[in-house]
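[Meeting: bench + compute handoff]

Bench side (C.D.) handed over the final construct sequence. Compute side (W.E.) agreed to return the predicted structure before the next meeting so the bench team could plan truncations. Sequence as handed over:
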Amino acid sequence: MEQFFVDKQCRPMDPRAVYIIQTKEEFIVLIGASCQGKNQEKYKEFAYKYIGELQKRENASEAVTEIDQENVDSYFWSIWGLEQAPAEPFMNTSAWDYWFPSLEDDSKRTTNVPMVEQIDNYNEEVKAEKLLKPRLFTYPDTDISSAVFDEEDLDFDELNLI
């Protein structure tokens, strides 16, 4: 587990996340300022489910406090042993960019790309996949290959190339 605030050295918390902070007395569910909509809904749902499991299996505290990032006070920082907030306690962490995909419904999104261009893009993706995806060739038929194969296709009497 990464430590965020140790010896007055700060590793900022990403505002796109929902954090679970457990103390002896309570759980704090911290909701980042950039965590909105469906992401916030799903992250909070998981956080409360996880807290429930800890309460049930680990005899953890029953008290749960939910705090929005904008409402963080001196008590929150005292949990970390700090007298006040660090200089930059919240900042997007680029290493975590892939951890926060948008969970909004795709049907609500519109695309302004013409259909012809979408088809061209798809054809380019298929062409690139054909070059990169593993394929099974049985020597000497180098023109015929299979992209989907299993162990039964690997006949040990023939030379197979992937």
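W.E. noted at the follow-up: Residues 135 and 147 are 4 Å apart (CA to CA). C.D. will use this when planning the next construct.
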